[in-house]
Amino acid sequence: MRFRDGGVAKADEAYIRQSILDPAAQVVQGYEPIMPTFKGLVTEEGILDLIEYIKSLGTTEKAGP
Ligand code: HEM
User: pTM value?
Assistant: First the structure.
């Protein structure tokens, strides 16, 4: 996806983890940085579960060859 600062990145596990713990670090273009941090609120296991769940949702981007 594309970020407000013009950067681009893939929503890999590291990005999803960062988006949960430090959501303001990279905000997707078209969105405001309103998401609160979940640091201290979700256990490490919870974060891993959330990452697995979000990955299971798939993508609208075309998969590579
Ligand atoms: C367990 C709860 C939550 C999880 C796991 C979560 C996870 C995420 C993830 C992974 C992204 C990045 C999406 C992408 O790049 O395509 C994101 C973005 C976003 N989230 Fe959340 N979120 C949660 C709760 C919330 C809440 C409570 C709010 C608002 C009150 C919120 C507002 C937003 C917004 C506006 C964005 C898009 C802007 C950005 O990239 O920061 N989220 N969230």
Answer: 0.86
34 lines ligand 1 (CB under 6 A): yes
Strands (E), the chain: none
The CATH number of residue 38's host domain is 1.10.760.10
Q: Report yes or no on 44 lying in a domain.
A: yes
Residues 12-31 have pLDDT tens digits of 999 999 999 999 999 999 99
Residue 54 Cβ inside 6 Å of ligand 1? The answer reads yes
- Out of 8, 10, 26, 35, mutate this one to test ligand 1's pocket (max ligand atoms within 8 Å of CB): namely 35
- At 60 the pLDDT is 67
- Establish if 52 belongs to a structural domain: yes
- Specify the 3-state DSSP secondary structure of 26: coil
Residue 17 lies in a domain: yes
Contact 6, 26 (CB under 8 A): no
